[in-house]
Amino acid sequence: MASKSRWADTEEDTVLEAKQKRDKEEKKRLKAEKARKAEEEKRAQAEAEAEAARQRAAQEQQNQDDRPPAKRRKITPEREGKEDGGKTTDNEGGTKLLRFEAGGWGKARSVENYDKLNDIEEGAYGWVARAKEIKTGKVVALKRLKIDSSESVGLPETGLREIQILKDCSHRNIVELREVVVGDDTSRIENVFLVLEFLEHDLMSVLGDMPEPFLASEVKTLLLQLASGVAYLHDHWILHRDLKTSNLLLNNRGQLKIADFGMARYVGDPAPPKLTQLVVTLWYRAPELLLGAKAYGAAVDMWSVGCVFGELLTREPLLQGKTEVDELSKIFELCGMPTDDSWPGFRRLPNARHLRLPKSSPVNTGSVIRARFPLLTSAGSSLLSGLLSLDPDKRPTAREMLQHEFFRQDPKPKHEAMFPTFPSKAGQERRRRRSTPNAPGRGQKAADLGAVDFSGIFASREKEERGAGFSLRMV
Ligand code: ADP
After folding, report:
1. For the segment 101-146, what is each residue's pLDDT rounded down to a tens digit?
2. How many structural domains are present in the chain?
3. CB 77 within 8 A of CB 143
4. How far apart are the CA of 163 and the centre of ligand 1, in A?
5. Residue whose CB lies within 8 A of the most ligand 1 atoms, among 120, 139, 145, for a mutation test
6. Mean pLDDT of all residues in the chain?
7. Terminal alpha carbon distance of the chain
8. Residue where a domain terminates, one of 158, 176, 197
9. pTM attached to this predicted model
């Protein structure tokens, strides 16, 4: 019972005052209780968030290294002032850092701003269409983001990489990403579209339809542009990892642009020790990848550039292996067997341990390449055999390629404005396709070649030439 107040006039006042005091105390207690509960909830939420972040980090770690190394996005100093510069900024060390605007495409516009004109490419793998922006009438290419079956939840890694890398790049030989737009149901990843500048052709379609191969001067123009785009990527620590003729676009002004960055990734310096081997479409895949190398670098792209070079000369893909073993055997036929001299250290690669190789290789890359491309000058075949060196360290870099004497010799590279034009498939109908293998999907597993016997490869080839057939023996 509360003691009587000196100011209480009556018994009633005393009771009232005591009640008010009790009410006040109860309110205070409830408030404290509420604060404690809120504190508890906050702590639980923070713990849940931390746990989710930890799980995400663990998952990422497990998804092997294959993610852009945010802290390592540094680039080598420019050696040439000719690049289109782009979205790069200088830091105090004189090197350049890419500017990356995080989350910029969160406020994406609707795909309804575009009218579809025609499909360019529609298949199990992806969808690309020619479209027109309603407001401006500008023609663009719309590419739907692929659903990645290997991702159980969340965003498709390949699509995100493609967006991030394309946003960072600005170079005349790399396709321009104008914006990212979304369909009505933004929760569905297949409703995310890349709006790309439109180019009339891809090189594979052009090569497939050409009655005559490109002239030497035209091959040089195309290769210089390809090397320039690749040099820009490598300067910016980006590996494309799927260079091939269907990913090289060509417009009617003779400009070549590298497209399809679904397999691309940032690498730091030094490159991560564990990268996925399952990259690059089989026919353009470097021997170190086929032999299971997990540490690799820009030279994998240079091998693909070599394959594209050969294809530009003959209009046919250079190394059309049916399987990984067959691809390797075609490579060895063209480039010779690896030896400790020609490729020091190749025996340490995971799939090389089981290879049975002939004691000596009767071929030398240069002579086979000269025989296969008789019209190529000696500078041309030295560049091609350099790009197709089995040892990745012996391949020229893209910057070195740009300086190669092949491009200084006559016939000189044709001026882009003088480049021939071709009827556009993409402008009217779907592009006609030769059937070619695709880049491996993220969920796929790299093949373990096991034991493969290459020891009779050259003898067998002679037999095949005499009509006896040639096959590889698995041992
Ligand atoms: P995917 O990742 O599905 O292979 P790509 O980016 O390689 O998609 O595009 C597939 C095809 O679509 C290309 O070979 C080319 O013919 C066409 N294409 C892609 N981007 C463009 C573009 N910007 N302009 C015109 N055609 C394009």
Report:
1. 444 455 789 999 999 999 998 765 679 999 999 999 999 999 998 7
2. 2
3. no
4. 14
5. 120
6. 78
7. 98
8. 197
9. 0.74
